[in-house]
Hints:
235 residues; alpha/beta; Rossmann fold; 2 domains; six-stranded parallel β-sheet; four-stranded antiparallel β-sheet; 20% strand; elongated; Xanthine dehydrogenase accessory factor; MoCofactor_Util/Proc
Amino acid sequence: xxxxxxxxxxxxxxxxxxxxxxxxxxxxxxxxxxxxxxxxxxxxxxxxxxxxxxxxxxxxxxxxxxxxxxxxxxxxxxxxxxxxxxxxxxxxxxxxxxxxxxxxxxxxxxxxxxxxxxxxxxxxxxxxxxxxxxxxxxxxxxxxxxxxxxxxxxxxxxxxxxxxxxxxxxxxxxxxxxxxxxxxxxxxxxxxxxxxxxxxxxxxxxxxxxxxxxxxxxxxxxxxxxxxxxxxxxx
Length: 235
């Protein structure tokens, strides 16, 4: 790998940008493609696929063989609300390979004893997210069940193109949430990105089952996201 590509790879890693090194196995030439670059040609689908899967490998396009070496930032889940579901979701998500961060200003809930070994920010999301910004490789899970805590990070997740946005709440609660976000200027397609009721519909009842349903929906979104856009999945 030449010095220029290495410098770009290091810069991409620091800025949490996914890149793939495309090597023509016949000529040995290299091309570095960042997610959202607007790549085209017969190899487009293969590049998008490795951005979604994170698996490097050999592909064929136009009768030629290429090796796609993909470099992805660690997927992250930011959980808003240090509730019982969050305790379980944090453990499950960490086992699945996600970086996990929990944000909640309520000191009665956000205690080191309840979230041992987890990146816990006892702060308002508007302040905590200045230090650890959201991005297209982040899932936002809002379970505080308090609009004063949940609304800002949900809006920020839509703005920054988080690959998943989910929020806890009943139909009535979510309808009121949508009205507040509309008042902030969000349109129908943007609001449709919010998964509520949160989690896959598996009939979950207990906090542990709800955590499993949420994590499953996050993984589904990660592996099916639009890897051709710098803003992630817009569905």
